């Protein structure tokens, strides 16, 4: 039996899709030669053809080019948001699970309060506080995810602490720090990673939502949510302006979702 | 007796959480740089004198010390007074009263639809005859949760309403007009519920009692509807309680797309205009919905799951 | 040899999981009114055969060969709908684990009723009457009250009675009992088996009993089949199997089963006058208002084994955790090597915990799944001994040799080794701290008999060579008898008996101990009486 289950076809496909988007983030100019922000006015609202695979928008900008450059707007920001969420959440949740019952109770109360505020509303509250813009939006999404990260990580660590092998390690003379470093972290890593990947797909969607509502990057930034919002006005005549950015979001979010699904699926170790 | 006590404790907890949610948002919003009132009224076009602006300030925010303001606001809120909208100059209560019914309709219909989806997906994924079909149903939750809500909403209008002319979205009664937005909002709500239900069904199916029931000669359908499904819904109910708050948040996007004048529209305007009092009121409504739904679920679960009814007496602590 | 028609007729059955054969060439017949035992250790394929008969194999299983017929009807060719009319009606199935084999959400009466609803056209009232009758038949005194109770309100033995009521509701021709009592306490176990015997005699059903327990089989079965690695090692009547076993595997099983031989005579190591290694005085532990352990006292002399026997809920786990100082008692004291463990400094506590190692029941959950065997055994070495890497390496090899594990296992993970190997690793980890005292919690209970026998041998070898003191907690009297010098028997937290082990086994003083000893399986032989069936 291997330590890591071999990657299934689904995971390979998901990783492949994400790699393409990764390429778009790192080398957008290798994938397209057009400019994402300035268009050719005479070429406005062209339907998809060989020259413009995904058509052009109202200013004659190539939609595919904008989607490629848009990856750079959403995906790293979503990563920042998710990392903010998981780091804060792991700190609060871990602290709660490892502390005395009084501290745990207090922190759990705070987590409950934050969970009671719907994530989007919490993100909007943060946005109103910090102001609009891509970085602020990422921070807002990260903070709005913190409570659910904290809750899940707290419960995970607590259930790990109750495992017989943890007690066995303590009775073998392992101290508190050793218990965390040698036993809790390695065992919590995989489930938390799976959760983080899942949350990443949700952060992408949340960020695009903020962009769609106009609280993210301002025009003419090629942000996917913003592109969908702009495309709405031309929906009757230029369906491609809304369809393709949405498909890009859907593809990357679905690939991430499947990847996390494959990661968190229980392994069949012993009968 | 103990169940009354349990209900009481849960109720107090709910109140405490609401109070916490109020406190958190109050201080978050008070920390706002640049007073919203000042921004609004220092507009030279209004031609207000500094004295008038100061008078406005006192009128809108009550008093200047944050702690006093906090006490003042919480007392007012307990009386159902949410203050004034700085943007529109009308009581927040009036705005909410107009907007809430629309959003509640949307939330209730969307919620019911999401439950229908969840059950359909679970049934399809468990009972369909061909394996590939079952697998396709199992992939639905992941797919739906990857769809951006505003994007699917746009296409629901475009296809169902404009192209196929099945249901109009403008100029119709309050319930007909809600069907399409509710459809849009139900998909992302159903996705996590269905995912959890599928997981739970998979776990229940592995329990020995399911095998024991099969040995009685019960058919696949009978085992599923009578035993597996009822034993799998409890965690889903908890999740459904959680998602009720998300429905109100989902309304922000949905109402924008479908042109509904509900809480979502109100929120959007409040964020754009930095209208703190309105946003605070909306957050409190969202939190109340969340807490109430959770309280309801919490009191409902023992009715569904008999082993949780008198748990304390049967828990054996020293069992080896 | 038998003129009756077989009820169940399996011929040349072969089943594989994902292409790997699980059972091969199994042929057997069962007859009305007789019990056939299918004996095997884990992985022998006994459950696969049971599931194949009732046609509820998991999807990864394939029937590669053979047929199964029940009273002349082929089960292997039946349609799903046809099978549903046979299951429950002609085949009754008694599952393994009563605690999880009932729907937790429904009253038990409704669950018995279900089988009637599925197979008969009885009215609701008729069904209710039938269920009440069944409840009474399987030994419930208040059927009306039981009808509306939920599974969590019944004890394990009661749940098993309900499951038996479901299985026998329609007097099926064949009853399959899949380890029907292995999850139950000894005293309950014999009651349930008595009930099964009675029902079989009354209805003339044929019983196929799947079990790992030779002693239970010897008490209850007329015929036996011993399985090894998915093949039949021996097929015989119970009597001749025990008197003159034909296969070497059967002989090995018999030799390794603790039930069939008492402890090899060793000189009593009960030396009084020395300072006891562990001294428990008047110990009482309570959780809230519930007393888990009350007024327990015993001494353990250095170099001896103290057995603690108790059924589930007896408080033995609580006692053990208190002994380790993991929970504090309400009153009473525990002295280890003369020192009170509840008034020690933290340095003393650390020293005592090094000297007194706890070894757990579950082979897998007590080893961290993310660490290699090397890291697991090294943990106490790093923590307790300042010596360097080279010293640790030498110690590691010594320890592995002590517990008879090959060196190449060091880089494996716990999920990659067997249960018996896991227990050896757990022992090596405990020994790494160089303790004087080992506290063993149901240490061999999860293991197959042959593995169990090797581990017990290892324990006595270690005790002799390292002069260790053992506290051995178990529910299994036969196992404890093999290893214990002194004994405490506890029930509901109270000490029923305490003293020299052989003395207690020979002349039990308390009535509870007497019943306990009488109900140990393997003492009667059912194979003797049913001669009349053979002759007919």
From TrEMBL, chain A:
Compartmental location: Cell membrane
Keyword Mitochondrion on entry: no
Membrane topology classification: Multi-pass membrane protein
Transmembrane segments: 12-31, 77-98, 197-217, 237-257
Swiss-Prot/TrEMBL keywords: Cell membrane, Membrane, Peptide transport, Protein transport, Transmembrane, Transmembrane helix, Transport
Entry-linked Pfam families: BPD_transp_1 (PF00528)
Main location per the UniProt record: membrane
ABC transmembrane type-1 domain ranges (all copies): 71-260
Family: Belongs to the binding-protein-dependent transport system permease family.
PANTHER family: D,D-DIPEPTIDE TRANSPORT SYSTEM PERMEASE PROTEIN DDPC-RELATED, OLIGOPEPTIDE TRANSPORT SYSTEM PERMEASE PROTEIN APPC
Protein name, entry field: ABC transporter permease
Species per Swiss-Prot/TrEMBL record: Gluconobacter potus
Automatic annotation (TrEMBL), chain B:
Domain ABC transmembrane type-1: 100-301
UniProt subcellular location: Cell membrane
One Pfam family it belongs to: BPD_transp_1
TM annotation in the entry: 12-32, 106-128, 140-160, 236-258, 278-301
Topology of the protein relative to the lipid bilayer: Multi-pass membrane protein
Keywords recorded for this protein, A-Z: Cell membrane, Membrane, Transmembrane, Transmembrane helix, Transport
Primary localisation category: membrane
Entry annotated with the keyword Transmembrane: yes
Family label: Belongs to the binding-protein-dependent transport system permease family.
Name of the protein in question: ABC transporter permease
Source organism of this protein record: Gluconobacter potus
Automatic annotation (TrEMBL), chain C:
Top-rank taxon: Bacteria
UniProt xrefs under CDD domains: ABC_NikE_OppD_transporters
PANTHER family documented for this protein: D,D-DIPEPTIDE TRANSPORT ATP-BINDING PROTEIN DDPF-RELATED, TRANSPORT ATP-BINDING PROTEIN
Localization: Cell inner membrane
Keyword Protein biosynthesis attached: no
PROSITE patterns from the UniProt entry: ABC_TRANSPORTER_1 (PS00211), ABC_TRANSPORTER_2 (PS50893)
ABC transporter domain location: 8-254, 278-517
The family this protein is said to belong to: Belongs to the ABC transporter superfamily.
Membrane topology: Peripheral membrane protein
Main location class: membrane
Protein species of origin: Gluconobacter potus
InterPro entries documented for this protein: AAA+_ATPase, ABC_transp_ATP-bind, ABC_transporter-like_ATP-bd, ABC_transporter-like_CS, Oligopep_ABC_C, P-loop_NTPase
One Pfam family this sequence matches: oligo_HPY
Keyword terms of this UniProt record: ATP-binding, Nucleotide-binding, Transport
Name listed for the protein in its UniProt record: ABC transporter ATP-binding protein
GO molecular function: ATP binding
């Amino acid at each position: 039996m291997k330590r890591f289950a071999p990657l299934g076809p689904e995971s390979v496909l998901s990783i492949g899709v994400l790699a393409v988007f990764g390429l778009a983030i790192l080398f957008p100019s290798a994938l397209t030669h057009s400019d994402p922000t300035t268009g050719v006015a005479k070429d406005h609202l062209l339907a998809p053809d060989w020259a413009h695979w995904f058509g052009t928008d109202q200013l004659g900008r190539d939609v595919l080019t904008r989607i490629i450059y848009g990856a750079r707007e959403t995906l790293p920001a979503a990563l920042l948001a998710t990392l903010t969420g998981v780091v804060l959440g792991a700190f609060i949740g871990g602290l709660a699970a490892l502390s005395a019952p009084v501290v745990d109770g207090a922190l759990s109360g705070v987590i409950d309060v934050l969970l009671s505020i719907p994530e989007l509303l919490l993100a909007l509250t943060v946005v109103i506080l910090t102001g609009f813009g891509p970085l602020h939006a990422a921070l807002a999404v990260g903070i709005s995810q913190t409570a659910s990260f904290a809750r899940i990580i707290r419960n995970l660590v607590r259930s790990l602490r109750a495992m017989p092998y943890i007690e066995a390690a303590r009775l073998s003379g392992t101290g508190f720090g050793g218990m965390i470093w040698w036993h809790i972290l390695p065992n919590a890593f995989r489930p938390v990673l799976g959760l983080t990947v899942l949350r990443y797909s949700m952060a992408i969607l949340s960020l695009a939502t903020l962009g769609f509502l106009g609280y993210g990057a301002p025009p003419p930034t090629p942000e996917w949510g913003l592109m969908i919002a702009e495309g709405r006005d031309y929906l009757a005549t230029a369906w491609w302006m809304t369809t393709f950015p949405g498909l890009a979001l859907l593809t990357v979010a679905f690939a991430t979702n499947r990847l996390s699904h494959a990661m968190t699926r229980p392994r069949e170790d012993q009968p | 007796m103990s169940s009354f006590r349990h209900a009481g404790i849960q109720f107090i907890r709910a109140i405490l959480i609401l109070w916490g949610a109020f406190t958190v948002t109050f201080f978050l919003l008070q920390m706002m740089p640049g007073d919203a009132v000042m921004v609004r009224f220092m507009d030279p076009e209004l031609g207000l004198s500094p004295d008038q602006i100061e008078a406005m300030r006192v009128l809108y925010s009550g008093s200047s010390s944050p702690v006093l303001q906090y006490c003042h606001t919480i007392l007012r809120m307990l009386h159902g007074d949410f203050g004034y909208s700085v943007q529109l100059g009308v009581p927040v209560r009036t705005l909410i009263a107009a907007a809430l019914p629309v959003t509640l309709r949307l939330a209730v219909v969307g919620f019911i639809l999401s439950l229908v989806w969840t059950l359909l997906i679970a049934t399809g994924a468990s009972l369909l005859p061909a394996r590939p079909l079952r697998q396709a149903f199992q992939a639905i939750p992941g797919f739906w949760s990857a769809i951006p809500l505003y994007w699917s909403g746009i296409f629901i209008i475009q296809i169902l309403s404009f192209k196929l002319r099945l249901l109009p979205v403008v100029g119709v009664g309050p319930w007909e007009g809600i069907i399409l937005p509710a459809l849009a909002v139900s998909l992302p709500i159903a996705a996590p519920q269905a995912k959890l239900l599928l997981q739970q069904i998979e776990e229940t199916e592995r329990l020995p009692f399911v095998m024991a029931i099969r040995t009685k000669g019960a058919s696949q359908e009978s085992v599923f509807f009578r035993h597996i499904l009822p034993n799998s819904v409890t965690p889903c109910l908890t999740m459904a309680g959680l998602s009720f708050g998300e429905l109100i948040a989902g309304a922000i996007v949905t109402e924008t797309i479908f042109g509904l004048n509900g809480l979502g529209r109100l929120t959007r305007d409040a964020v754009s205009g930095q209208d703190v009092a309105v946003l605070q009121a909306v957050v409190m409504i969202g939190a109340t919905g969340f807490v109430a739904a959770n309280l309801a679920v919490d009191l409902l679960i023992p009715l569904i799951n008999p082993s949780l009814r008198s748990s304390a007496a049967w828990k054996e602590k020293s069992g080896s | 040899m038998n003129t009756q028609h077989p009820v169940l007729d399996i011929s040349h059955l072969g089943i594989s999981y994902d292409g790997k054969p699980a059972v091969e060439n199994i042929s057997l017949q069962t007859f009305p009114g007789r019990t056939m035992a299918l004996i095997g250790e884990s992985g022998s394929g006994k459950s696969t055969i049971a599931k194949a008969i009732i046609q509820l194999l998991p999807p990864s299983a394939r029937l590669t060969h053979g047929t199964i017929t029940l009273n002349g009807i082929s089960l292997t060719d039946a349609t799903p709908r046809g099978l549903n009319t046979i299951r429950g009606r002609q085949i009754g199935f008694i599952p393994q684990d009563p605690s999880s084999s009932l729907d937790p959400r429904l009253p038990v009466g409704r669950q018995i009723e279900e089988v009637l609803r599925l197979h008969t056209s009885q009215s609701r009232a008729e069904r209710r009457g039938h269920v009440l009758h069944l409840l009474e038949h399987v030994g419930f005194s208040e059927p009306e009250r039981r009808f509306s109770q939920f599974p969590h309100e019944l004890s394990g033995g009661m749940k098993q009675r309900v499951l038996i009521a479901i299985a026998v509701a329609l007097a099926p021709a064949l009853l399959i009992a899949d380890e029907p009592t292995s999850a139950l306490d000894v005293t309950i176990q014999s009651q349930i088996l008595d009930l099964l015997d009675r029902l079989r005699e009354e209805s003339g059903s044929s019983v196929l009993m799947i079990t790992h327990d030779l002693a239970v089989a010897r008490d209850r079965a007329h015929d036996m089949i011993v399985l090894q690695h998915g093949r039949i090692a021996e097929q015989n009547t119970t009597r001749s199997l025990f008197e003159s076993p034909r296969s070497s595997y059967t002989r090995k099983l018999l030799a390794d089963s603790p039930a069939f031989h008492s402890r090899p005579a060793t000189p009593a190591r009960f030396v009084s006058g020395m300072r006891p290694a562990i001294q428990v005085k008047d110990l009482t532990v309570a959780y809230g208002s519930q007393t888990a352990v009350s007024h327990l006292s015993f001494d353990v002399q250095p170099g001896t084994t103290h057995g603690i026997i108790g059924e589930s809920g007896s408080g033995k786990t609580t006692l053990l955790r208190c002994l380790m100082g993991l929970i504090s008692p309400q009153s009473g004291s525990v002295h280890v090597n003369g020192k009170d463990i509840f008034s020690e400094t933290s340095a003393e506590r650390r020293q005592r915990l090094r000297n007194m190692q706890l070894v757990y029941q579950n082979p897998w959950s007590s080893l961290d799944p993310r660490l290699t065997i090397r890291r697991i055994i090294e943990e106490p070495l790093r923590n307790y001994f300042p010596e360097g890497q080279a010293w640790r390496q030498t110690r590691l090899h010594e320890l592995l040799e002590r517990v008879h594990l090959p060196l190449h296992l060091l880089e494996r993970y716990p999920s990659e080794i067997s249960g018996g190997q896991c227990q050896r690793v757990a022992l090596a980890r405990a020994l790494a701290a160089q303790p004087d005292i080992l506290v063993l919690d149901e240490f061999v209970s999860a293991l197959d008999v042959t593995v169990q026998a090797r581990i017990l041998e290892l324990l006595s070898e270690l005790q002799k060579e390292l002069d260790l003191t053992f506290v051995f907690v178990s529910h299994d009297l036969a196992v404890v008898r093999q290893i214990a010098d002194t004994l405490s028997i506890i029930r509901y937290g109270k000490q029923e008996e305490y003293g020299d082990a052989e003395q207690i086994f020979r002349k039990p003083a308390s009535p509870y101990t007497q019943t306990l000893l009488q109900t140990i399986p393997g003492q009667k032989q059912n194979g003797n009486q049913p001669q009349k069936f053979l002759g007919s």
